[in-house]
Amino acid sequence: MAVDIASALGMGTGINTTELVASLVSAARAPKQNAISDRVSTNEARISALASAKSSLSTFSTALTDLLKSSAYSGQAASSDATIATVATIPGGTPKGLPAQIEILQLASAQVLQSAALTDSAATAGTGTLTITTGSTSVDVTLTSPANTLADLASAINGVNAGVTATVVSDKNGARLVLKGASGQDSAFTITAGADADADLARFAFDGTSGPMTRSQTAQDALIRIDNVDMQFASNTVTGAIPNLRIDLNRAAPGTIVTLATTQPTTTMRDLVQEFVSAYNELKKALNSATATGTNGVGGGALSSDPGVRDMSRRLAALTSTPLAESGAFRTLSDIGVTTNRDGTLTLNTTVLDKAIAADPAAVTAMLNPTVADADNPGIAGALKSVTDYLNGTDGPLAASAASYDKLKASLKKQLEALDTSMESYEAQLTKTYSAMQARLTQLQSVRSYMEQQIKVWSSDNR
Asked: How much is the pLDDT for 11?
């Protein structure tokens, strides 16, 4: 920046040090600060582009994995006799071990007790304490007058959360207290009248076998047999017998075998491959844009020289030749018509794909979406996840790129701080120098004024 020194000196009015120093400091700072700021902007663009690439890859991998877990590709669970048992998949996984044969020998049931009939729900139930015991847990229920009717007793039982539900049922014979526990034999309960219970309240006792209360239903577990393996459950809703499958037991049918299986998927493997290629190409086009070299180094992408993203592109490109199955007629995506273009995007030859599906649909399905995925049989989702995990790993190439950008960001921040410190020192130095010059100029101006006055005096005396 050019500085008009003569103008700044004021030609006899003294040096304008504030303006002069500010101009000189700005002239010295601008090129250095602009250079650092340009590097900061470039580095921030790279950090943003790298984060976007990582996020896009992770989103693609997760979406593919979740898609293959859905019933659209794995099929819906079904029962050959819904009157005996119905089934439904549990979110988060695909049922394993189907088809399976189930026989329901016995349904789970809850213990139910009923009292003798009283006049109505407002009839006196008595006063004192009843103790409800389920397993090793005991809860006391206490009635006191005047809140001691049959309805009050039901309300008090429900209020103590003893695992027993109380209701008052009324019919032409009167009103009765009905108690129901949870299903399963371990939920059987007893009712004991305390020492303070009067004769009326003692009518609601049950020792586990008999008593004034009548047991109308016994607590018992469900007994089932799956593929000739006997199992026992406290509920008629079974979730632990077959992974990721809920079985609802509707009625006991000893001797009747029901088949549990999955229906055919509503979405075909052909659709899956087409969706994969389309989603992959969207991701690859974004990467190509971010890594473009431009013309003569101008107009390139933010990640044109990033080694981590170049490694990402190479590994994604290798997916078409990566074995997805250990054996079988079809082992790679290229075997079913997926090829890689020069720009890294994919092309699907639907003729080849259709021919493969027609020849051996089970083999194509097993390759793309194996029933049990492992290192040797990863399937399409497993292969992509393996690439994603490596690239996004703590010591992976994308983490290394991110670390280098973060390091540069910290370095550039320090450079800006150092520039501020340097310019502050330079400003102080200039201020000191020009302040001294101003003081000297003031002295010279004083001498000049004195001499001018003397000359005027001498000129007056010589007349």
From this structure: 40
Strand partners, 77: 262
Q: What is the pLDDT of residue 119?
A: 95
The pLDDT, as a whole number, for residue 94 is: 72
Largest CA distance in the chain: 152
**Pairing verdict, β 245-249 and 85-89:** antiparallel
With 0-12 / 13-18 / 19 or more C-beta atoms within 10 angstroms meaning exposed / middle / buried, residue 154 is buried
Q: What is the reported pLDDT for 249?
A: 97
List phi, psi (to 5°) of 296. 55, 35
Q: Provide the token pair at 195.
A: 């020492």
Q: Counting every residue, how long is the chain?
A: 463
Do the bridges between strand 100-106 and strand 222-226 make them parallel or antiparallel, or are there none, so unpaired?
A: antiparallel
Give SS3 for 244.
Answer: coil
* Architecture of the structural domain at 110-217: 2-Layer Sandwich (3.30)
Cβ proximity of 273 and 346 under 8 Å: no
Whether omega before 265 lies within 30 degrees of 0, making that bond cis, reads no
Angle between helices 397-461 and 379-392 (to 10 degrees): 40
pLDDT tier at 297, thresholds 50, 70, 90: low
- How confident is the model over 363-372, as pLDDT tens digits? 888 898 887 7
Decide if pLDDT at 14 tops 70.
Answer: no
What does the DSSP 8-state code read for residue 146?
T
In this prediction, residue 6 has a pLDDT band, given cuts at 50, 70 and 90, of: very low
- Is residue 258 within 8 Å of 226, Cβ to Cβ? no
Of 231, 203, 192, 207, the closest CA to residue 111 belongs to 207
Contact 208, 190 (CB under 8 A): yes
pLDDT over 70 at 5, yes or no: no
pLDDT at 259 over 50: yes
Q: H or E stretch including 132?
A: strand 128-134
Phi and psi (nearest 5°) for 170?
Answer: -125, 135
Backbone region of residue 330 per phi and psi (left: phi > 0; alpha: psi in -120 to 50; beta: other values): beta
Residues of 236-257 as b/e, b for ≥16 C-beta within 10 angstroms? Answer: bebeebbebbbbebbebbeeee
